[in-house]
Amino acid sequence: MYLSDLVFIETGNSDWWEGDKESKLINFKKCRFIAKSITEITSYQQMPYNLWPVQSIRQFLMNLPFIDDNKAFTLSLQCEPREPKPNNN
Question: Are 37 and 2 contacting, i.e. CB atoms less than 8 angstroms apart?
Fold first, then answer.
């Protein structure tokens, strides 16, 4: 979510400068948005999480079969083909 916000801030406000190019005024509104997002990220990084391992879930994840990149790509295309299926109306 935060990465999306930062990308949106950058692409939605692509100009670091406000006004005409000669005056070179810094876009402080954009800087404030970026600072707010980064402050939120760092605040979550400071909080410890009380997570405990759940053995049944851990065991399930450890026993999942390995799928290499080629097989994963093939399965992905089966789920979501690149070409739409023809409409047989």
Answer: yes
Strands in the chain per DSSP E = 17-18, 25-26
> Is the distance from CB of 4 to CB of 10 less than 8 angstroms?
no
pLDDT in tens, 22-40: 666 777 888 898 899 999 9
Overall pTM surpassing 0.70 (yes/no): no
How large is the C-alpha radius of gyration of the chain? 23
Instruction: Please answer whether residues 19 and 25 qualify as being in contact, where contact means their C-beta atoms are separated by less than 8 angstroms.
Output: yes
Helix (H, G, I), strand (E, B) or coil at 6: helix
